[in-house]
Recover the amino acids of this structure.
């Protein structure tokens, strides 16, 4: 298991007086103003046992800090991979069900006739270490049938209780298959039994034409299944909605990939286009250094916006790597919250296979904050075979 040394200094200034809840990751939130740091680690302890850890640190003010452990788990598995067990604090995601963070255990067994069985049970983790969790628990599982080498289908179920009362109950089905060498299809559906209705549904179909890949997609996602916000684009773009369109990926040159999305979104009773254009240029044959760019048109109604993103990763001597990313969001209507909202990240990392170290700075401005700055530092070590 890795040893972690984490340091963070966070500062922010509110643009409005209303309380804002920021999503730290899929299953943790902290009330603003707050800074957030995530550090992850995993390692092989030998004899089929692995350990992983993920720690986040939030500071509501310069002097007030608190930290929670998001993931701290022991994983054990047989050499042939037919049985696996995980115990501790982790995030469980079974098929089409929504992910959940819990203190508990999960197990996976490969059964005869190409059946796979997954089960999990534990106590859901709530924000704050001192939060009472009496009679709070969740239990669920998934059974799947592998379809030879082409894909699989599965069905999953989970029930969650809070203070002994039913809080969430979902059933999900999922499946995917490769139809020959060029075609792929996939679909999933999650149904909320506690508040009857579809929580999430999606279907995709893709085909490859030499250097071109074309994918058709349609999806619906309720608020309970929204993904974590990892950038300004995802903060503004993820909302309960019905979406549909096509995604294109084209290997234009040996080191240049082009792509884009063309679709529509239906949300809040309005229909709006979704248009994305992407480009990625690899600066070496292995892709250790690369430049990428993105142009996006998103939003619905009066909240439509245009976004620009640029990113670079440069491999440096002595096993160093520098990376940077910049996003600019230009809203269609200025409501006194700024004409341009920027988000930027600059990082420098070092990894010799055993030791890893990184330092980064993240800065942004948005409708919630006039400015926000996070300074991040990480130090880690890996034991066992790389």
């Amino acid at each position: 298991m890795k040893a972690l040394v984490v340091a963070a200094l966070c500062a922010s200034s509110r643009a409005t007086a209303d309380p804002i809840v920021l999503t730290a990751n899929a299953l943790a939130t902290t009330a603003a103003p707050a800074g957030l740091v995530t550090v992850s680690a995993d390692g092989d302890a030998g004899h089929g046992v692995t350990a992983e850890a993920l720690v986040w640190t939030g500071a509501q003010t310069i002097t007030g800090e608190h930290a929670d452990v998001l993931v701290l788990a022991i994983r054990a598995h047989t050499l042939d991979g037919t049985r696996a067990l995980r115990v501790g604090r982790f995030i469980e995601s079974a098929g089409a069900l929504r992910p959940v963070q819990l203190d508990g255990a999960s197990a996976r067994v490969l059964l005869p006739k190409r059946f796979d069985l997954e089960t999990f049970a534990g106590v859901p983790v709530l924000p704050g270490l001192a939060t009472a969790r009496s009679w709070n628990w969740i239990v669920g599982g998934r059974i799947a049938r592998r379809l030879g080498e082409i894909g699989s289908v599965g069905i999953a179920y989970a029930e969650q209780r809070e203070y002994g009362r039913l809080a969430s109950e979902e059933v999900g089905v999922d499946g995917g298959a490769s139809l020959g060498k060029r075609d792929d299809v996939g679909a999933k559906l999650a149904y909320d039994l506690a508040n009857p209705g579809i929580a999430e549904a999606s279907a995709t179909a893709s085909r490859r034409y030499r250097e071109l890949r074309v994918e058709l997609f349609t999806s619906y996602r309720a608020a309970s299944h929204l993904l974590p916000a990892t950038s300004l684009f995802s903060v503004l773009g993820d909302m309960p909605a019905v979406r549909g369109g096509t995604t294109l990926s084209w290997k234009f040159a040996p080191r240049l990939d082009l792509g884009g999305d063309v679709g529509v979104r239906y949300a809040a009773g309005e229909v709006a286009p979704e248009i994305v254009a992407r480009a990625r240029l690899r600066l070496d044959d292995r892709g250790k250094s690369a430049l990428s760019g993105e142009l996006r048109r998103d939003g619905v109604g009066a909240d439509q916006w245009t976004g620009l993103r640029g990113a670079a990763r440069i491999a440096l001597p002595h096993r160093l790597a520098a990376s940077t990313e910049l996003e600019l969001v230009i809203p269609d209507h200025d409501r006194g919250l700024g004409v341009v909202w920027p988000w930027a990240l600059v990082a420098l990392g070092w990894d010799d296979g055993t030791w890893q170290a990184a330092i980064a700075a993240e800065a942004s401005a948005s409708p919630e904050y006039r400015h926000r700055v996070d300074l991040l530092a990480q130090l880690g070590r890996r034991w066992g075979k790389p």
